[in-house]
Amino acid sequence: MATPTAAPSLILRTCLHCGQDLATDQQDYCCQGCETLSNLIIPKNETDWDSAFIRSTYALDQNKTEYIFQSDGLHCSSCIFQIEELPQHLDDLKTMQVDFAKNQLHVHLLSEKSSLKTIVAALHDMGYPAQLLLPEEKNKSAEQHEKNLLKRLAVAGACAGNIMLFSISIYAGVQGYLKNIFNTLSFFIFLPILFYSAVPFYFHAFQSLRQKRLSIDLPIAIAVSIAFLFSVVQWLMGYDQIYFDSLAGFIFLILISRYLNWKVQSHYSKKNHWLSLFGTQNAYRLEDNNELKLISVHNINIQDQLWVGPGETVPADGYLVSSFAVVSSSFLTGESLPSHLQLNDKVFAGSKNQGAGFLIQVEAVADSTRLGQIFRQTESHLSQKNRILTKADLAAQYLIATVTFIAFVFFIIYISQGGSLNAAFQRSFALLIIACPCALAFGVPLAQKKSLNAARMHGWLVQSADAIENFAKADTIIFDKTGTLTLGELQLLPSALPVHEDIKSIVLSLEKESQHPVAHAFRKAWPIHPLALPKLHNLKDSRGGMQGSIDFDFYEIKKNDTRSEKYSVALFKNHIKIQDFYFDDQIREESAFLIQSLKKIFSQVLILSGDNSLQVEHVQKKLHLDANSVFSDLSPEDKMSIVKKYPRSIYIGDGHNDALAMNQASVSVALSHSPVFTQTQSDIFLTQSHLKNILDIFKISLNTQKLIRNTMVASFFYNALAGTAALAGWIGPLEAAVLMPISSLCILLTIRWSRLT
Amino acid sequence: MNILFLMIPVTLILAAGFVTSFLWATQTGQFDDLETPAHRMLHEENKNDERIK
């Protein structure tokens, strides 16, 4: 098609908004969307701190005077002082309390009419930019759970201590009516423990039974019940085998460990509200008077028409009302290259606008969007993974079952051999008390926690308890190529001859509005100021590339379709190619060394990629791997089936197309630039986008394994020795009750003081 | 040993009192933040400040 060579009064008119050719002479715009958009005044996207909407959404109390801010600018004690002094300087502020550890500011305003704006401005001026937190984000239920745990712990401790008072007298030899009184008191003081402190055990034991799972709470609940009933019988009959004190101490210790566990665990569970995926919580709605109104994302209704600006994230599911749009759905599909949409095409919440602004009509909001649904699924998945006591559970179960069995058998044999009932009971019970699954109940989780902490120091956030352990147990390590081993962005390769400045300007001009990776690569390579670029007429984004004209020349950039190892585009002037450009996805500097080191540790190192074989071969050669270690042209499903063949593997990816494969590996690692969806699917999430720390993590993993193994071995020996002593009658239940917490303490301290790195 | 009949109930009441205070303190958030109060105590109060509130 020949471009017009007539004088500037063009015969063919173009849409005043988008630049597309117009069908007739009578219009100024190609469609309703363009006309509306052209006449829009876009309100500034500034948070109106004092709007009724903000106040009602973020207030913690009925009077709308209590708010919580998140501010990451706190870095020292003086910050606390300065901020907490603010109420002296601002009338509207009644109190201000800082939570240093959580980076939160708890604000009480003087009255409902007080202005939040002045406070935010003051904070900002002082250097502490602050964001309001939604009340849900304060995670009330987690706090309450922690409080409950602490309360139960306190009750258990107080009761245990008081029972000890009386027990000691009895052990010292008190007789007669005082003994009876003390035993009775022990019983009554034990009741709060039985009915309040030990409740979590019954609850979880019951729950796990319903789910047909074995949990460590089950043997504990059973042991507590049996020992309690037995002691009650003994007490009522006036005998001596009363174990309220031991039980109380036992429950107290276990609750301590649970509390500590919880405190560490709550560091790792981040409940991301799905809306936090968007940088902003506002959207633009087109009102009936054709004006744009800034509204909160929460207020979007179905059938609203929303305007999504350049670079913004789409806040709801819907279909396109404008004539075209360029969006990137990399968060879901992993396609880093954007898709071109036409009128009525579907647009999903979470997509990023990589072209000019467009209008959509909303079809689904919040949890009903595709993104919201995915988020709901991954949340339940995540909460399952977060149960820290997994393998330790089973092992502890076996231990208790074995010990109980032995105690029972011993009891029968002893009696049948003519021993006294009392002695039989004493010895069996001593065995039960002393054979403590402490190493498993406290030790393994503590060791795992240590490893999580150590990993976190290196920037590896672990979302599943055995991930670190399994890391060293794997025999295969599998990498995704793009973005993981490579930088994931296109880089313009220098050409044989230097590129003419004019050509640079034209290319940059064509790619000015584009967010395409190729455009980024050009801009990175040639830092020419946008204002210095020539203006193009008829700038149009056509399928396959950009086109436009300057004066009478028609320029076009199109992708070269050659299947070479390098991505390439070409610049055409008046349909004649004048320049080729080649791009490469650079391999990360640490990849080569890393692969070499990993080859010595793991029996197999594999690379999976969706790119074509030539590109993958190029990477394979650079990293010195054999041809049968790399796989190319893979779809997400293909990747998944390959990983399935290596169940004991570590899979490392940056999320694009990796989520399915990650589910098949025994440990999955997501790099920091992964889309959120994949982050939540992975076992380990890196806060960095490089892999330099893998070897350190491997060392941590090995050491953790060693530590856990040593702990279990020590615990086994202890149990064997102490158990024998109990059965032989050398240790009575009293000594057993003392020894048990001591052994637990020893194990805890050993683990606490060992080094993992 | 008859004094025990007085002492033991008193002890238990005292213990109950302590436990109750602890439970109340926990519920009202005393133990939520264990770090900031440590910093806060180092701050010097302005002796002459006028608090209008």
Description:
- The complex is a heterodimer of chains A (757) and B (53).
- With 757 residues, chain A is α+β, with helices and mostly antiparallel strands.
- In chain A, 47% of the residues lie in helices and 17% in strands.
- Chain A contains 25 helices and 26 strands.
- A 7-stranded mixed β-sheet of chain A has the order 14-26-25-24-15-22-23. Chain A has a 6-stranded antiparallel β-sheet with strand order 6-5-7-13-8-11, with helices on one face.
- In chain A, α6 runs parallel beside α9, α13 runs antiparallel to α24 and α24 (694-727) packs antiparallel against α25 (733-753).
- The longest helix of chain A has 34 residues, at 694-727.
- Chain B is mostly helical and 53 residues long.
- The interface between A and B is medium-sized, with 27 and 27 residues.
Radius of gyration of chain B: 20 Å
Q: Largest interface by residue count?
A: A-B, 27 and 27 residues
Radius of gyration of chain A: 34 Å
List the uncertain runs of chain A: 1-10, 268-279, 385-389
Quaternary structure classification: heterodimer
What portion of residues of chain A is helical? 40-55%
Low-confidence stretches of chain B: none
Q: What is the CA–CA distance across the termini of chain A?
A: 68 Å
Average pLDDT reading of chain B: 82
- Can you give the mean pLDDT of chain A? 77
**First-to-last CA distance of chain B:** 57 Å
Strand order of the largest sheet of chain A: 14-26-25-24-15-22-23
How many beta-strand segments of chain A? 26
What is the 3D form of chain B? Answer: elongated
Please bin the fraction of helical residues of chain B. 40-55%
Number of DSSP strand runs of chain B: 0
Alpha-beta content class of chain B: mainly alpha
| SSE pattern of chain B, N- to C-terminal | HH
Our count of helices of chain B gives 2
Structural class of chain A: alpha+beta
